[in-house]
Specification:
Helix content is 38%, strand content 17%. By secondary structure, it is of the alpha/beta class. It has a six-stranded parallel β-sheet, sandwiched between helices. The longest helix has 16 residues, at 154-169. It starts with a strand and ends in a 14-residue tail after the last helix.
């Protein structure tokens, strides 16, 4: 599977780290893009991002990445965490950064685009942007951890969201089964 993982400046870098930890980067081609603000939030929240050695990193200020063009076929793009500012710019179809251009490409090519907003509460503009993106084919997967499994650590709680992301892109979560129908 060919994946693009991006992060923007919203709080929630634990979700990004847990996703990178759980994707088998030897079996999947993974490309990573961090916005400038995401880099700062990584430092503030987790100190340093542990990026698997075979993940291809790209600068957000560059358009020199294969997934910036619809002619390169990728399976899915995940923006985790996704700030409401980024979500709004994706909804508006702007493309001034690699993350925004790639999201636009995934929407226009009808490829899986998963946005993981963590910010709350929403205002009406946020809700309308979300509706616009849903109508355009994006998957909105708010970072709302589940607690019925009685998570013992922050990582356990974050994994309830990460496992849903993996389910959406069709990859198994390590050591888990598919989600129960009761969810």
């Amino acid at each position: 599977m060919k994946l693009v993982i991006a992060a923007t400046g919203a709080s929630g870098m634990v979700y990004l780290q847990r996703l990178l930890d759980q994707i088998d980067c030897n079996q999947n081609e993974v490309h990573l893009v961090l916005s400038g603000y995401a880099k700062q939030v990584v430092i503030d929240e987790i100190g340093k991002l542990r990026v698997p050695g075979n993940v291809r990193e790209h600068a957000d200020k560059s358009m020199n990445a294969p997934f910036a063009s619809g002619s390169a076929i990728f399976d899915a793009m995940v923006v985790v965490p996704c700030s409401m500012g980024t979500l709004g710019r994706i909804a508006a179809g702007t493309g001034e950064t690699l993350i925004l251009r790639a999201a636009d490409v995934f929407l226009k090519e009808r490829r899986k685009l998963i946005l993981v907003p963590r910010e709350t509460p929403w205002n009406l503009i946020h809700a309308r942007n979300c509706c616009s993106l849903l109508e355009s084919g994006a998957v909105l997967l708010p970072a709302s951890p589940a607690f019925y499994s009685l998570p013992q650590t922050i990582a356990d709680a974050a994994d309830t969201v990460v496992h849903r992301i993996l389910d959406q892109i069709g990859l198994p979560a390590p050591g888990t089964h598919r989600w129960a129908e009761s969810e």
